[in-house]
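Example record

One chain of 251 residues, shown exactly as stored in the release files.
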Amino acid sequence: MSKPNNSQLADIVSYMAESMTVPQVVSHYDKSNVFSTIEQRVGIYANGRPIYKRTWTGLSVSVNPQVSTWVLFSDIVVPNASLIDAVFLMNSQMIVTPQEVWIRPATGVLETLYWPENRTIDTVMLWYTKTTDSAVDYTISSTDDYSTSETLIGRWFDGNDLFQRTYSFTMPSTQGNHDIVTLPTGSNVKDMQGGCLWNTNCFIPLSYVSEIGNQNFFCFMFVNEGKINIGVHDADLLSKPAWITVKYTKA
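Predicted structure tokens for this chain:
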């Protein structure tokens, strides 16, 4: 078979270009600029606590200027929240603002007071912190922070926050498979590594295989139903101090 000439090659390239489906390019947006109906973690407040943002749509809440009437947004419940900012929309396009807005501590329900005139609110956007969150030390913001507390270290490629936490424990006293760590609810593990001190001068990784003579010695880790399980098949590792560092996102 003879090779195609330049004219034939040009025709082939032209045909391929017309036949190919070019996928749309989706830009990667900063979460602080995304108004999602799912709670998003978007920053850090002055007290060190994470800032969350969430949007509620499809509401139909009538408000009025009566001074003594609290308006309850019963569809908006954010437990343990401390409000930072709020935006209210009428017809999804006009911003209207009450004089007072708060989230009632006992119920977590959003309430407002002193509206300028009668309105029907269909969209609400809130920024808030949570009293259950601890302040985060952001002077260390890399994977070198092996804290036993949850630490935000970056962002996974799907845009979700990436967390890291180290668990310190004692290896099981018997060989076999053992649940060692219960992970936070909704965790999606992306990576983990661990080690064990066989003695003060010998570090052994928690995933290894060793063959001595006709015997195999090994240890492995895996995640199952929200727990980290260790398979220990080496008597030298039993009851020794150990640790596991886990990187994960949250559902």
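Notes: The two ends are 57 Å apart (CA to CA).
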